[in-house]
Amino acid sequence: MAADLNVLQDNLARLFKSQLAGVEHKLGELTLEIRAADLLPVMGRLRDEDCLRFEQLIDLCGVDYSAYGDGAWGGKRFAAVYHLLSVTNNARLRVRVFADDDDFPILDSVTGIWPGANWFEREAFDLFGIIFTGHPDLRRLLTDYGFVGSPFRKDFPLSGHMEMRYDPEQRRVIYQPVTVEPREVTPRIIREEHYGGN
Questions:
Q1: Cα angle: 143, vertex 82, 46; to 5 degrees
Q2: Between β-strands 162-167 and 172-177, what pairing exists: parallel, antiparallel or unpaired?
Q3: How far apart are CA 91 and CA 89, in angstroms?
Q4: DSSP letter at 41?
Q5: What Rg do the C-alpha atoms of the chain give, in angstroms?
Q6: pTM
Q7: CA distance 162 to 177
Q8: pLDDT in tens, 6-63
Q9: In the chain, what are the domain boundaries?
Q10: 36 Cβ neighbours under 8 A, 6+ residues apart
């Protein structure tokens, strides 16, 4: 398998020499990093080149690197990570693309290359706030339409101020202030003698 990854790595270096931001061969997996500006041309060639033929997009996920390495990360904050499969060549590849702007992350949509990216991109938009330009229907997928924020971002509050519930009397979903009191969930067997006391 390592020999196959070495051949794949050589092919990637030959075809995309000026477009590669990095290639990592680690733990039996190959990760290709490209710049956001090169996303669509590189992805199209990953699918169409005979020596690559990554016909399937297996997964796409958003990543927030702001707390990566216990805050020691110095690079860009948001990335989309694509997991590709070549059935023809029996190979897998991970592609990582960082959004250029940390405050308003934008990447091109790959739905024109792999239509199955549609819901994956909607999920990354909903949970991380990554905008995919050219997406045919970019809207929330998992959270409510009135939801504010991106819940998988590292700076999203763990406890919100509003909660949503169905009110059977009004026969609709309502928003109301949070009623759950935060509490410490440390098991009694490891608590100190006067835990929580003054």
A1: 145
A2: antiparallel
A3: 6
A4: H
A5: 22
A6: 0.80
A7: 4
A8: 889 899 989 998 888 889 988 888 999 999 999 999 999 999 999 999 999 999 999 9
A9: 2-142
A10: 97, 98, 99, 100, 106, 107, 108
- Read off the tokens for 133: 């330009």
Pair of tokens at residue 74: 């110095």
Residues 56, 11, 133, 69: is their CA dihedral positive or negative?
positive
Residue with tokens 């009004």, as numbered in its chain: 170
Please tell me whether residue 37 adopts helix, strand or coil conformation. helix
Residue written as token pair 């051949």: 7
Which CATH superfamily does the domain covering 2-142 fall into? NADH:ubiquinone oxidoreductase Nqo5 subunit (3.30.460.80)
Read off the pLDDT of residues 152-178 as tens digits, 9 standing for 90 and up.
999 887 776 777 788 999 999 888 887
- Other C-beta atoms closer than 10 Å to the C-beta of 108 total 21
Measured between alpha carbons, how far is 176 from 165 in angstroms, rounded to an integer? 8
The pair of three-digit structure tokens given for residue 3, joined into one six-digit string: 């020999």
Instruction: Give whole-number Cα distances, 21 to 5, 15, 89, in Å.
Output: 18, 13, 24
